[in-house]
């Protein structure tokens, strides 16, 4: 998930790519409707190195189609053994489109072509993303949007629970031989690599009790009773605020995983993001309560703090662990600049805040060894980067 390693890469498609994408989409829609379809007025929506994404106007069709559509055209098939973002997106959109409209978590799939690696999707409009709202100047709108985001996440989990076999079958149908949660892959690697990295870069050696707790927490990465579909990358720029609630936009790394790994986003916002800010006092708990009110329809025992809170702490521990592994210098570089090219807040600030909060939560839960390890990491970060990293500023809308 490259969003963890730097600002998101945005590529402006060349005119030839635009022409090719429109022509391919017209052919796909023509085959689907049985009559000529013409598209016009392409608008670049900011794809990545993997895909071209644009909004188009339906200029000519004898059938009823939406006035505008979104086209997502993927590049070449990844090397064998690598995850295919097209397969993840196509399978996810098919899975979501099968739900009743009021339960859909993302755009409706209008048409697709597996060979051409192209998707034609419902245009959810020109509304603001959650990122736009958080970086705006209206605290009430930001609060409403964050609570709507939490509710949408809960509805996603309840509406998609028990659909793992369906997702697996759809992945195979669109050419994905296998799928995996990309975060789970990185977490498993970080479990073995981060202890040495912490020792080398910060002089902190995690106690054996901490490693044992991590091993137990990694049970969230396996088969549990609380698994559901996840877009995987549920950061603010991939969440659209609409009149019907928040909708999720990007399913390139979608997977099925334990809901606690997503719910942890509610308590310390967006741990997979390269850009982290603080929330006002009490908002995280309000968001968790909103999410919880939805998921108890499927998992009634998550209404019990004795069941939910330890799972959330395990998820928090895994996120802090893997994000530290992402951010600290690796590959033999003992003094790499982890804050290079970063806007405010710095990665070192985000790490210090995550470890500080982990220490507080672990101490409250009676996990003294985890709390002590977290305290030592915070002290080492301050010694290396300065005491100013202890202040994580709120999102601009809440200042």
From TrEMBL:
<dbReference type="InterPro" id="IPR011009">
    <property type="entry name" value="Kinase-like_dom_sf"/>
</dbReference>
<feature type="domain" description="Aminoglycoside phosphotransferase">
    <location>
        <begin position="106"/>
        <end position="275"/>
    </location>
</feature>
<dbReference type="InterPro" id="IPR002575">
    <property type="entry name" value="Aminoglycoside_PTrfase"/>
</dbReference>
<dbReference type="GO" id="GO:0016301">
    <property type="term" value="F:kinase activity"/>
</dbReference>
<keyword id="KW-0418">Kinase</keyword>
<protein>
    <submittedName>
        <fullName>Thiamine kinase</fullName>
    </submittedName>
</protein>
<keyword id="KW-0808">Transferase</keyword>
<dbReference type="Pfam" id="PF01636">
    <property type="entry name" value="APH"/>
</dbReference>
């Amino acid at each position: 998930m490259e969003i963890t390693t730097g600002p998101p890469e945005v590529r402006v498609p060349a005119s030839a790519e635009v022409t090719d994408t429109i022509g391919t989409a017209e052919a796909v829609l023509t085959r689907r409707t049985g009559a000529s379809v013409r598209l016009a007025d392409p608008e670049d929506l900011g794809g990545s190195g993997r895909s071209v994404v644009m909004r188009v106007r339906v200029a000519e069709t004898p059938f009823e189609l939406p006035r505008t559509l979104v086209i997502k055209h993927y590049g070449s098939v990844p090397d064998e053994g690598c995850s295919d973002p097209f397969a993840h997106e196509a399978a996810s959109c098919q899975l979501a489109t099968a739900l009743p409209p009021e339960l859909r978590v993302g755009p409706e799939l209008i048409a697709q072509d597996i060979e051409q690696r192209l998707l034609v999707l419902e245009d959810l409009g020109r509304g603001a993303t959650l990122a736009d709202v958080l970086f705006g100047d209206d605290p009430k709108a930001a609060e409403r949007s964050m609570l709507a985001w939490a509710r949408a996440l809960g509805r996603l989990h309840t509406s998609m629970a028990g659909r793992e076999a369906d997702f697996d079958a759809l992945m195979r149908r669109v050419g994905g031989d296998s799928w995996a949660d990309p975060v789970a892959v990185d977490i498993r690697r970080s479990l073995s690599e981060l202890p040495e990295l912490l020792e080398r870069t910060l002089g902190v050696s995690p106690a054996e009790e901490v490693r044992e707790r991590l091993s137990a927490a990694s049970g969230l990465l396996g088969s549990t009773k609380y698994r559901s579909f996840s877009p995987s990358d549920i950061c603010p720029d991939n969440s659209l605020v609409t009149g019907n609630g928040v909708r999720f936009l990007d399913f390139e790394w979608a997977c099925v995983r334990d809901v606690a790994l997503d719910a942890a986003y509610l308590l310390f916002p967006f741990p997979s993001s390269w850009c982290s800010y603080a929330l006002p006092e009490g908002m995280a708990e309000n968001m968790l309560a909103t999410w919880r009110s939805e998921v108890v329809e499927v998992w009634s025992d998550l209404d019990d703090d004795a069941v939910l809170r330890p799972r959330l702490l395990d998820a928090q521990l895994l996120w802090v662990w893997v994000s530290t592994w992402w951010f600290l210098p690796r590959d033999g570089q003992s003094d790499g600049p982890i804050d290079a090219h970063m806007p405010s807040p710095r990665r070192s600030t985000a790490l210090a805040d995550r470890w500080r909060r982990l220490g507080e939560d672990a101490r409250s839960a009676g996990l003294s060894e985890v709390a002590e390890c977290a305290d030592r990491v915070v002290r080492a970060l301050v010694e290396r980067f300065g005491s100013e990293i202890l202040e994580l500023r709120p999102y601009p809308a809440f200042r």
